[in-house]
Specification:
The chain is α/β, with parallel strands linked by helices and 292 residues long. It is built from 13 helices and ten strands. The protein folds into two domains: 2-122 and 197-291, Malonyl-Coenzyme A Acyl Carrier Protein, domain 2, CATH 3.40.366; 125-187, Malonyl-CoA ACP transacylase, ACP-binding (Alpha-Beta Plaits, 2-Layer Sandwich).
Length: 292
Amino acid sequence: MKAYIFPGQGAQFVGMGKTLYESSHIANKLFHQANEILGFNLVGIMFEGEADDLRQTKVTQPSVFLHSVASALALGDEFRPDMVAGHSLGEFSALVASGALSFEDGLKLVSKRATAMQHACEMKPSTMAAIIALSDNVVEKVCMNVDGIVVPANYNCPGQLVISGEIEAIDEACARLKEAGARRALKLSVGGAFHSPLMEPARANLAKAIEETTFLTPRCPVYQNYDAKPHMEPSEIKANLISQLTAPVLWSQIVNTMISSGATEFVECGPGQVLTGLVKKIDASVSVSNIG
């Protein structure tokens, strides 16, 4: 069985999508449509903008979403997923590619999500850090015993867990995790504490927009970040999508559940090969490839 997976924020690079735009009529149409929906030249920034421009959340998230969806839909009839999943932002790409959301509604929600998250980041100084080569349960216990807000945010693969929270709490947690044996505790260059309680203002802001958007039954199960389980019921998908902003991304659990459900081949759609690498670390026995 074939699983299609979609990357999140951080996979972007200047020049992303240009070859796809030039070679696919379907992708070309989606790129032009995105500019019209957003009201600014997103495609120009993707192709020829400065790296700093592309790192702005309001640009990054629509860019990765557009590239990812176009990569999948450009396959035409060859795009026949048995299951889909996306990492954080990538869940929106997965929902559009699987038919649960229209492209226009998906892009509008992603744009609102980016703006809401940026606003939440500005309200409270916060950050994230990658903890390398330490078991998840040790990281969880350390976070629980640090004063302030610091929580597990991305369960990426065995030995790689990203934590999220207030800057002082992250600094304290990183120091304790190094003492506990982490090979690295690396603060990330991000604008805030994604997938933590500090994203509550963004969650509340986005919830209304999601509730008012029409979701359809997808063509295959969508394995969601919130609970790492397959979903096809629109009301469940909506609820999990709303909860996603303040809950951890259970990526490692998602991949293992997909494999348990019969996935033998993973295809990453979109910029970069971050998820391809994570799947290999989770289970080296499955086939992985990347398009986009």
